[in-house]
Amino acid sequence: MSEIAIQIQDLTKVYKTNRVKAVDSLDLEINKGEIFGLLGPNGAGKTTLIRVIVGLLKSSSGHILFDGEELNINSAKWKHHIGYVPQETAFWKNLTVYENLNLIGTTYNIPNKELKERINHLLEGLYLVDHKKKLASKLSGGMQRRLNLAMGMVHDPQILLLDEVFVGLDPQTRNYLYDYLRDFASKENKTIIITSHLMEIVDALSDRVGILDLGKMLAVDTPENLKNTHGKGDILELEINKEFNEDLVAKVQKSEKDLVVEKKDQIILVKTLNAISKIPEILNSIENEGFTVLDVKITKQSLETVFISLTGKELRGD
Amino acid sequence: MESKGDNQNKFISLTKKLGYEFRTTYKIGLKYIKEIFRSKLFLIIAVAMPAILMIFMGVAFGGASSSVESFSILVINEDIGFTNVSTSYEFGESLIGTLENVTYPVGEGEDPINIFYVYETPEYNQSVEDYLIYEEHGLHLTLIISENFSEVIFNFENDVIITVVGDPATGVYHSAVSTFTTIYNEFVDVTRLSLGDTTGESVIVENYIGIVGNTTVFDLMVPGLVIIGIVLNIVFVSSTFAEEYELKTLEKLQLTPTRAIHLIGGMSLAQLLVALVQIVVLFALSLAFGYNAIGSFVLAGFIAWIMSLSMLAIGMMIAAFAKKGTIASSIASVVAIPLYMITFFPVWGIENIPMFQVSGNTFGVFDILPTNLANNMITDVLIYGQTFSDLIFEFVSLIIITAIYLAIGLVLISVFKLRPKKG
Ligand SMILES: Nc1ncnc2c1ncn2[C@@H]1O[C@H](COP(=O)(O)OP(=O)(O)OP(=O)(O)O)[C@@H](O)[C@H]1O
Ligand SMILES: [Mg+2]
User: Please, which of A45, A68, B32, B78 could form a disulfide with A215 given CB 3.0 to 4.6 Å?
Assistant: First the structure.
């Protein structure tokens, strides 16, 4: 068993103003050195959970254990340990990029020389070097997001909590961040908790994924296991040349084992595990009935399908 | 048992800790300074507005003090003379004669210019009329020669005392006194020497008669105008800090080991710099409009500077409750009104209500407001020429009051802005 970085026990957060239970009796263990992806539709409670963990929000009840002890959010040890990059950007508009990072670094008591090196390293990675003397208010939206990101990482934390940090980044920066986070977790045995609506990234990046809705954790497992247990397999979309009848649906259904077939106008949806190997049989059964297949689209089984089947919601919608 | 090494280590870690506290406070201060000086709005609020007010008042009520070549003095000669054996001495008269005859050194062919124009009157009772005489003639100084003046000079053993009366608010008074002192000392020395004596001292007692003569309304307003300028700092302190909360940059600091003391310390540094700029600009402007000050501007500025820290504290208190920068600045503008109104109370004749006394010094209700304390102190320094040692009680009061304000600000900010949100 790996060591536990943070242990959350029966954690509840109710917002007093509107009585919304944003986190509901949640239990969760985050291991040291793992990347933990937190998925959930809008309003699921992801941001709330993260903000309670870092100590910006007071929980209503429950415990958070850090190193086996009740977390003291005011301890210097904890503050040096965690890095938080919020969903909304925040920085000092009238300071330059460099000054923003320098200020944060100073408060962590990082020696000047080391701080300078770290800042420059981050600026290079995040393609901000050329802008380091610019006032933060003069940065483009994406650059602002990069600065926001750097500000949460400048002190080289042990545990990094990232809330929607991939949003608004160009592919270059996205790749850098992806690699950086991978290295950060694997080489330096650091822990990352990340929320994102970008399923492919969470899927590829995370060691484990937790699916949250209405403040409750619906499932926690590796992306593979989640897909195998909760996924309904790949989805095959077949567009045909004319209105089909129930017969056809029945035929297709019989052509292979374990198929779920639905129709939608001129499209037949086939849900199955390992769809690619079954395509020839399915196409055969359709064409035998005198239909022509105009288009074939395949959506590989993904976290998205797991997500939808668990929450019943599209991720991007509300 | 603690070893020497332990103590040494403790000392090193303490120094490191202090180093960290100062560095963090300094860096946060530097941040505020940069933010404040990079924002144009700040310059308008903190410096331009009070400066414009000062110029406006200067034009309306000010007047340059004229430089005076000759001094008009009123001499009240009560000297009854002294008779020894058969010789009688009238040293009072001799002094008047001396004063009437001293002239400025002049070049060849030029008419000599008298230093003193002397008006005489035999009696002086501190009545209204005397003040009127004083004002009517544009007198710079009144001398009172005592009854036993001749006797004391003759008898050697005592100091020779003379009383001068005048309005210290006028710059001229001071140059008149110092010129008179030189001449008077020489007169006593020469007179005693002619009688065969070299001991004894001449003593001059100065008697202030309050504000008459050259003092303008503007002179009375200057301390208040400087204070208004500094009171306006509440606005930018509170809005800068509330904005930090509004724009979530405070959250960023909350996650770091930064504490309220660093924030207030840093903001103090920024605020002190701003106040320094204001104090220099405003006093310089007041002089340009003929402010007749006699006391130390450095001491007066120092008082205003200490007072500015309590404005910082009030700004922090407001920011503790405001969720937005704009709300904070609106509240601050309202809070500022009574603070600077009170500085005009002495001018309007509204008296302070005593609260308690400490060794003869009274602390009044209005003194709870640092602006009131500071206003009176600056007036005492600049108009009445009082020095640090005259104002020890006031300084102690001002420092204690300021410390209390800062402590309240610190607690409110910690409780309402830096604790995890209850949501
Ligand atoms: N400050 C607040 N006061 C009251 N209710 C809040 C507050 N912040 C969030 N909520 C509510 O708490 C619930 C969880 O919100 P939260 O922001 O944690 O969701 P999220 O999973 O981060 O959503 P998103 O994907 O949109 O970022 C929502 O119902 C939201 O309306
Ligand atoms: Mg969120």
Answer: A45
Is there a single domain that holds both residue B233 and residue B189?
A: no
| A11, A19, A46, best to mutate for ligand 1 pocket (most atoms within 8 Å of CB) | A46
pLDDT recorded at residue B366: 86
Domain boundary among B208, B236, B266: B208
In-domain check, residue B422? no
**Selected residues 5-24 of chain B with any CB under 8 Å from a CB in chain A:** 20, 23-24
User: B121 with B51, same domain?
Assistant: no
Q: With beta carbons under 8 A apart, name residues in chain B contacting A90.
A: 247-249, 251-252
Question: Cα(A90)–Cα(A100) distance, rounded to whole angstroms?
Answer: 10
CB B320 within 8 A of CB B267: no
Show pLDDT as tens, one digit a residue, over chain B (423 residues).
Answer: 556 667 888 888 888 888 889 999 999 999 999 998 888 877 788 888 888 888 888 887 765 444 446 788 888 888 888 888 888 889 888 899 888 888 765 556 667 777 788 887 766 555 544 554 555 567 778 888 888 888 888 887 667 778 887 776 666 777 777 778 778 888 888 888 888 766 656 666 555 544 333 456 677 788 888 998 999 999 989 999 999 999 999 999 999 999 999 999 999 999 999 999 999 999 999 888 878 777 889 999 999 999 999 999 999 999 999 999 999 999 999 999 888 888 777 667 677 888 888 877 788 888 889 998 999 899 888 877 788 988 999 999 999 999 999 999 999 999 999 988 887
Residues within a 6 A CB radius of ligand 1: A 15, 17-18, 20, 22, 40, 42-48, 87; B 423
Q: How far apart are CA A162 and CA A206, in angstroms?
A: 13
B330 contacts: CB under 8 Å, gap ≥ 6: none
> Does residue B224 share a domain with residue B121?
no
- Ligand 1: residue of A11, A15, A199 to mutate (most ligand atoms within 8 A of CB) is A15
Sign of CA dihedral A277, A280, A283, A284: negative
Find the A93 Cα to ligand 1 centroid distance in Å.
Answer: 26
Task: Identify whether residues B188 and B298 lie together within a single domain.
Answer: no
| Residue with tokens 């990234």, as numbered in its chain | A201
Q: Which CATH class is domain A233-300?
A: alpha beta
Nearest alpha carbon to residue B264 among B6, B16, B32: B32
Domain count, chain B: 2
Give residue limits of the domains in chain A: 4-228, 233-300
Q: What are phi and psi of B354, to 5 degrees?
A: -65, 140
Same domain, B54 and B177: no
Residue B95 is part of which domain span? 71-208
**Closest by Cβ to B256, choosing from A58, A93, A107:** A107
Residues B375 and B226 in one domain: yes
How far apart, in whole angstroms, are the C-alpha atoms of residue A252 and residue A285?
6
Residue among A11, A48, A52, A92 with most chain B CBs within 10 A, to mutate: A92
Last residue of a domain, one of B157, B176, B208: B208
* B15 within some domain: no
Give the bridge partners for B73, in sequence order: B118, B141
Q: What top-level class would CATH report for the domain A4-228?
A: alpha beta
Instruction: Report which residue type is found at B74.
Output: L
Q: How far is A167 from chain B (nearest CA, A)?
A: 19
Residue type for B260, please? A
**Whether B130 and B247 share a structural domain:** no
Provide the CATH number for the domain around residue B114: 3.40.1710.10
Residue of A nearest to B240 (CA): A92
